[in-house]
Design a protein that fits this description.
By secondary structure, the protein is of the alpha/beta class. 31% of the residues lie in helices and 20% in strands.
Amino acid sequence: MKLYLVQHGIPKPESEDPRKPLSEIGKTEVEKVSQALKKAGIKISKIFHSGKLRAKQTAEIIGDYLNPSEGIGEAEGLNPLDPPEIWAKKLSDFKDPLMLVGHLPHLQKLCSLLVIGDSEKPIVRFRQSGVIALERDEKDNWIISWTLYPDFI
């Protein structure tokens, strides 16, 4: 199984808009990453997001490019302070490629929990609008395949 962890794009400051939607640079960076994912032939079955506006907008932009076969939806357990164990357990129910769009520190903790079994030891640097790709092998080990940040494109 392939899993793509995406930190939402750069939001507007809370002082400008308390809902914290994506800023113009945030939208531009998510578009750039989405185009690169499409060009690379990335296929996903579903995109889940936290429901926070910046994560929802990020998921929708990516969805416009990748057209997930099962669509885009809000899911519990993807908020910044949610325990990573929630999604670590849920992932056993999935076989098709999946994308989770969320926040730090949750995504960092989930990635570490999956790969090394310890959510408190960071193993990869996340960046807004960035993607961390993982794969689960036949022995149920999670491996980081690649990372993609907007500044790489």
